[in-house]
Each structure stands twice: as structure tokens, then as C-alpha cells.
Amino acid sequence: MIKVENLTKFYGDVKAVKSINFELNDGEIVGFLGANGAGKSTTLKVMTGFLTPTSGNVYVNDLEIQEHTLEIQKHIGYLPELNPLYSEMRVYDLLEFTGTIRNITGKAFKNSLARVVEQCGLKEVIHRMISECSKGYKQRIGLACAMIHDPNILILDEPVTGLDPNQIVEIRNLIKDLGREKLVLMSSHILQEIQATVNRIIIINKGEIVADGTNEELMSGFIGNTKLTLEIKNAEDETIKTLTEKIPSISLVDTKSHNGSQILQLEYAKDLDPREELFQYAVDSNWVVTEMSPHSVNLESVFRTLTMEDKANA
Amino acid sequence: MRNLKAVYFKEMKSYFNSPMAYIFLVIFAVITGYFFTRTFFLFNQSDMRSLFNIIPLVYLFFIPAVTMSLIAREKNLGTMEVISTLPLKDLDFVAGKFLAALSLVLAGLLVSMVHFITLTQVGTNIDYGAVFTGYLGLALAGAVYSAVGTFASSLTDNQVVAFIIGIFIVLIFFLMDKMLMFVPVALTGIIQYLSVDYHLSNISRGVIDSRNLIYFASVVGLFLFMTVRMLEIRRWK
Fold it and tell me: Do residues B206 and B129 lie in contact, with contact meaning Cβ atoms separated by under 8 Å?
């Protein structure tokens, strides 16, 4: 369990994190979402004991991090942003070194090694120099180092950057697996990634938490419009103009012509569904409908609105 | 202790997995070999004195080169973040790094012992005691310079800057007792006591005095302590 209380961090005069509060429980996979420079990494660095907070406290399993840094670090596995590794070391040596510092030696190390090699798919590179490994492997080596002691808490700063789509799916499944028993906190600035992996999202913007909740909670609390793309043929301009008069709940955002088709971008309030009326109108006006696809509000627009609003206020 | 050993072996592996250690040992052997054989053939003189005189000068450049990467590189690579979030005490980390650098320096001295073996084959009247204390003195001076270099490496994330700062501080210790004539008389005693060469020459002469040993131990301790403090300061930035 992690509790962050009024955490504030200054870099010189720059306030990177402004008095944030949140609580994370075991068995949760939490996504830490924010634009670049929002304060994600800074918060994670304080939580892992790498940086000292300017004010506020972090409690891990009810221990305060400043007083019990070494004790807390035994229970945390941390993958830093950009995944720094010793290029001149062999993968095995690095894992052995990390294991030794974590007090895993001898038979226990063999077992742990077999586990992380299996989980992270490192079998092929285990005796290679790290400098000779591909970016995807390096990322997994970093992850293996963070997991060698089977920690209760995993803190991963941008764990999937630089991976190809297959590897992303693998890592995502691994994180989901781990999250059944452990507390996993991962940060990302990629929404789709967070959305696909975690069950709770904390959005941070300019050092402040602007939203905290499950995927659904964030979206339901957000009132927006559903967008609809309508592609039609054989449409006269006149009939397109009168569309919004006939069906007032729809507003026309944009019209484009493409290969003899008209592509209309329409919008309507989230709780309405005027698609039947729209279809009827199309039949009446002799339109040939080649595509009609609604796009419901997604997390992306929630995120954009939350972070843009703040910009407008600032 | 377990952690210190882990850091030590990691560092030794990284010295010997890169050309660093080999370049150091080869050039050290070449330079010491030159200065040994020069007097050996030119003056028909078979002793270690000229060798012992030149090694402190070689130290001046070589030890900062060996130590410059110790901490500066970790900072530059970002691996310092990994290290700082492992349950590893700063002191274990610093001491492990220092001992690895010192080991490489001692390996250099070991290589130069080839000349001592030559000496035992051809020389007469060899003063074994003087050779022993000579090496002891060089090992202790090497420890001081390695500690200085470790400290210099903790000041920056740029290895070249660490190298220059290292040379600068080592040079101060090296030159101190050669500058005594410019120093007010009241201070000469202190400056002389602080200089590495003063203690080195005492030991090399064959006198192992506890005052000299305490000096070396306390300078090493001071610089390692300051290195640990530097690592702590970083957390507050």
C-alpha cells in the first residue's frame, strides 16, 4: 500500500509537483497519465526514494520513506524512465548484481533468474552484452531487474516506450498478470496504453492531479458529444443544408467531398441517438449511405479537455 | 559487506570488460620499465629508487584516469537512479568503487614487480626491506589518490571534468611539500604534514611510523566521507 500526502517537489524555483495526494492499494494496476513534463516521473522518483520531497510525505506499507528508505526499497521494484543500463555488462551479470544487492544468492537466485527469464523472455540474450541487445530486449532486461526480488510493489516509468506492437502486448499481459497480486503503478503519456492495461487512472497535469478514477468513472463524469461520420453519395447540397433543420438535435461540424462522395461530420449529445431519424431522412432525400460510424467520447478527449482547461485557466 | 563486494566485483568486471584496465596496465608497465632500465644500463645501477621516484608522477595522471568514470559515468548513464533505488547504502557503493580503483592501481604496482625480479637475479646487496617499504608507501599514496579521484568523480556527471578536477586535487597534494619555501614559516609544519610526498618519502626510507599510517588512513577516510555526502546532497536537488 502506498499513501502520498501533500507531496510537493521544487527543482530550484520550478514547482514540479504541487501538493498531490493519492492512495494505492495492493492488487491494483494504476496508470499515471500526463503530458511530458507534467510531474509524473518526479512523483515516481520521490516514491522510490531517489529524490527527497520539498514537503509532504510518502508512506509505503505505513513506513515513511525518508526514515525507512532502505527498508522500503526492499519491497519496491523500479524501472526508471529511459531504462538506464550498464552497456558493458552481460545480462546475466547485471541480474546477478541486482540479485546480490537484493540479498538473493545461490539457489534462490537460480530460481528467481529462471522466473524473470521466463516472464520477460530473456532466454536468448542471457549471456549477451547489454550493448548488443535490441531496444526491446533492453526494456525487458530493465523490467527483469525490477522484478528479480519478486517485489510487492512495482513502479514502472514508461515501461513500453520503444517496443514494437507485439512486445507491447506481451508486456501489457505481463503487467496485468503481476497486477493480480501486486500493486503496479505505471506511468505513460500514451493514453491507449494506459487504457488497455490499468484499472485505475490518475491524470496529472502541471504538477496537480486533475482526475483519479476508473476508466468508466472518468468518462461518465465527462459530458461530451458523440461524433458521427456519415459518408453519402448522390446528395444535393440543398438536402444537406436542410438536415439540421429537420433533425435539430444534430449539428453539422464539417463537410468534405471525396471521390464523388460527401463526408459529413456530425455531432449530437451523448444521451441521444438520432441515427434512425438520420437514416429515414437519407432515404427521403435519396441519399446513398456508404458509411455511418459514431465515435463515442473516449479517454483521449477527456484527457485533452482536462489538460487544456487547465491551460486556459493558467 | 555483501553489497560492498557486489559493487566491487561489478566494477572490476567493467574495468576488465573494457579496454580501460589493459591500457592502464600496459602503459604503466612500459613507463616503469623505461625508467627502471634507463639507470640499469646507463649507470650500471641496479636499484629500484628511480622506479619508486617516477611512480608518484605516473600516479598523477593515471589514477584520475582510472577513477574518473566511477561515479560520473553512473550519473551520466542514469544508472545512478537504479543504484539509489536499490537497498544499497551509499557507503557500500562508494567503498566498493574505491576499492576497485585501488585494486587496479595495485595491479599496476604488481606488474612493475617484474623489475624487482630482474633485480634479484642480477643485483647484489639488495635491501629487501627498502623495496618492501617502497611498495607499501606507493600503495598507500595510491589509496589516497584513488580516494581523491573517487571524490572528484562524484562532483560531476562529466568524466572529463572529473578527470581534470581529480588531477587538480592530486597535484595539490603532490606539490605541497615542494612549495614549502613560499609558505610562511609558521605554516610549513602543517603544509608538510598534509603533503603526500612527505609521508611517502618517510615510509620509502624504511621507517614505518604510525603517524604516516594515520595520515594516509585519515585522508582516504575524509575523501570517501565527502563522496558519500555528495551522493546525499544529490537527493535534495
Answer: yes
In the numeric block, which cell numbers belong to residue A32?
Answer: 499515471
- Just give the CATH number of A2-220: 3.40.50.300
Eight-state DSSP code of residue A203 = E
Taking residues B162-166, report their average pLDDT. 96
CATH 3.30.70.260 residue ranges for chain A: 225-296
Q: Would you list the domain boundaries of chain B?
A: 2-235
Residues 6+ apart with CB under 8 A from B91: B224, B228
Among chain A residues, the shortest Cα distance to B234 is held by A51
Taking Cα atoms as reference points, which of A162, A156, A157, A163 lies closest to residue A179? A156
Q: Does domain A225-296 have CATH number 3.30.110.30?
A: no
Are the beta carbons of A73 and B86 separated by less than 8 Å? Answer: yes
Tens digit of each residue's pLDDT (9 = 90 or more) over B126-141: 788 888 899 999 999 9
Interchain contact B84–A (C-beta under 8 A): yes
Across the interface, of A86, A101, A105, the residue whose CB is closest to B87 is A101
Q: Do B17 and A98 touch (CB under 8 A)?
A: no
The CATH 3.40.50.300 domain(s) of chain A lie at 2-220
ipTM above 0.90 for this complex: no
